[in-house]
Automatic annotation (TrEMBL):
It comes from Psilocybe cf. subviscida. Residues 47-113 are annotated as: Disordered. Belongs to the SDHAF4 family. Residues 86-97 have a biased composition (Basic and acidic residues). This is Succinate dehydrogenase assembly factor 4, mitochondrial. It holds the Pfam family DUF1674. One of its GO terms (biological process) is mitochondrial respiratory chain complex II assembly.
Length: 113
């Protein structure tokens, strides 16, 4: 007695019937002449990479309401006060000198412990 594996014909289809009805011929704009297409692609490339130029324009790079960057307290890789290598260029948590009892600040943001 031999057993044969029977696979229904409908189950062996790999492409669903709805996928065959989708048309790939869609409307599109007419192609540009070769010279105009190259110019368009060059302008598009320049517009997508505005900060890749050699001269950074800081008015474009930062929002007008953005805080100014924090200036480092020392130059080089080693902190002269602590001897730490590769650490932060400013003390990340600094106590307010006028208020010995209280708040800690980082980049102008204050938290109370």
């Amino acid at each position: 007695m031999s057993f044969a594996l029977r696979i229904p014909v409908r189950a062996s289809r790999t492409v669903p019937s709805f996928a065959r009805s989708v048309s790939l011929n869609r409307p599109s704009p007419p192609p540009l002449p070769l010279k105009d297409q190259r110019e368009f692609e060059e302008l598009l490339r320049k517009a997508q990479t505005p900060l890749a130029s050699s001269e950074p324009d800081l008015s474009v790079a930062a929002h007008p309401d953005a805080r100014p960057p924090v200036t480092p307290e020392f130059d080089g890789d080693v902190n002269p006060n602590t001897g730490e290598k590769g650490g932060p260029k400013r003390e990340p948590v600094k106590r307010w000198a006028a208020d010995p009892g209280g708040d800690w600040s980082f980049k102008g943001r204050v938290s109370d412990f």
